[in-house]
Amino acid sequence: MKIFFCSASGMVGKMFKPRLSSNISFSSQLQNDEFKKDKSCIDNPLGYIKDKFDFPNSMAKYLSSVCDAISKDDDNSRSILTLIDCASKNNVESDIIMDLLVNPKLNPNIEKALKENTDEVHFFESKTEALAEAEPGEVFAVKNNPYALIKSSDDDILQLKITPSTYRKLFPQFQNMLVTQNFSSDCYILGVLNALMNFPSGKAKILSMFSESNNDVSVNFENGILSHKFENGNLPKNADMLRLAKGPLGIQMIELAYSDELLEQSIRNGDYYNLDSINSRLPYYYPKYTNIGDYLRDKQGYVDRFMNTIGLGKLEKCDLYKSELQDKFSDIVLSLDGFDNLIFIAASDTKPVSLSNGVTLKANHAYVIEPYIKNRAIKFRLYNSSNSAFYTDVYLADILNSFSRVYVGEAKIDS
Q1: Which residues fall within 8 angstroms of residue 144, CB to CB, at 6 or more apart?
Q2: What is the pTM of this model?
Q3: Which of 50, 170, 174, 199 has the fewest Cβ atoms nearer than 10 Å?
């Protein structure tokens, strides 16, 4: 039997302030059915968005993709409207709907969270009951166990090292999958984390990095060299928020922990960096670095290095300029049962490239490729790592011909 465990709520910062919200707990009064009855927001999507967020007219050009998607008056458009409604009521930053891929579709996991409409952690009498009733990827509590657990697959449960209330503080429901890039070049980190968060064992991999002791929260990477402690489960006061993703606290902690990890590695290697010299070479409009760790996270992280640090398995780097590696990548993603626990991070070329569906890839940027099966055929979702909320469908030929390389990693965990 499921009952509910009361938990903490979280809040993401603001870009354009929601007009209606002072409430920071998960709340959505409007569901898809409501938008079937009221067509005004579909006939005038830009007006609806402006009603929800305090947008200046100059920002309307960044909303064309989401407005086009809303105007189609289909299930996806109503899901997007529900997301906008929830975002405006929960202090979620408005840039989740700005400058999107062409033909954006809502992340299926976010759509599921919107339908569940709860910010509570389920409580079970036993692990046996949880294994039978919990959904894969669900975090829950069990009687006589102070820490949270996650159902990492249909048949496995992973014991976590944080309490249910701390889990909700780090990863608030609905908001935990809304991640957008800030003034940082760590798209490779966000791509890996966004890809992992989209399936049960990947989410379990992320949560396994966290532990809790005396109200402090620590982040530990499987192949890291440091334990990164956050006093009272909060970011340090001197954290440069401009260089942390806009999203859940847990993702920001991982970013900061990786900055510290790279800094420690550079110190051990005897490397030297002059912060004033680094800042003097930045464009005038770019915010100055406040510490070397953030600079190293921007310039020396790399996809495969981060994957290795956090302990992903089966690491592969497929250079798509080489036909034999194109074939290798194709063999992996076209295996009907071979990609369940794998993530695919694609790196774009040094110049913008247009795909056959009208999407223009940003140069030197990380994208998430997510194979899925529909109608007994393998399809491909493409997420921009700068925004975890939306994807667009792409063809395999576009992936092979438009990206320079794809990194493959497996979310291996010890249950």
Answers
A1: none
A2: 0.90
A3: 50
Question: Are 257 and 228 contacting, i.e. CB atoms less than 8 angstroms apart?
Answer: yes
Tokens 């493409």 locate to: 382
Q: How many CB atoms lie within 10 A of CB 123?
A: 18
Distance in angstroms (rounded) separating the CA atoms of residues 197 and 248: 12
Nearest to 166 by CA among 180, 146, 151, 152: 146
Query: 14, 133, 30: which is closest to 79 by C-alpha?
Result: 30
Rounded to whole angstroms, the Cα distance separating 376 from 235 reads: 45
**What is the rounded CA–CA span in Å between residue 82 and residue 111?**
9
The alpha-helical segments, DSSP class H, found in 64-158 are 64-70, 75-89, 108-116, 127-133
Instruction: Count Cα neighbours of 272 within 13 Å in the Cβ-side half-sphere.
Output: 2
Write down the pLDDT at residue 311. Answer: 96
**Contact between 318 and 329 (Cβ < 8 Å):** yes
Q: How far is CA 163 from the centre of its chain?
A: 22
Grouped pLDDT means (10 residues each) for the chain, 415 residues? 33 38 38 61 89 81 93 92 89 87 94 79 94 94 96 95 96 87 94 96 97 96 96 96 95 97 95 95 92 94 94 92 91 75 94 92 95 88 95 96 95 76
- Residue 296, C-beta contacts closer than 8 angstroms, at least 6 positions apart: 259, 262, 263, 266, 273
What's the sign of the alpha-carbon dihedral 72, 76, 77, 78?
Answer: positive
b/e map 298-322, b = 16+ CB within 10 Å: beebebbebbbbbbbeeebebebee
Q: Is the CB of residue 315 less than 8 Å from the CB of residue 408?
A: yes
Under 8 Å between Cβ of 404 and 348: yes
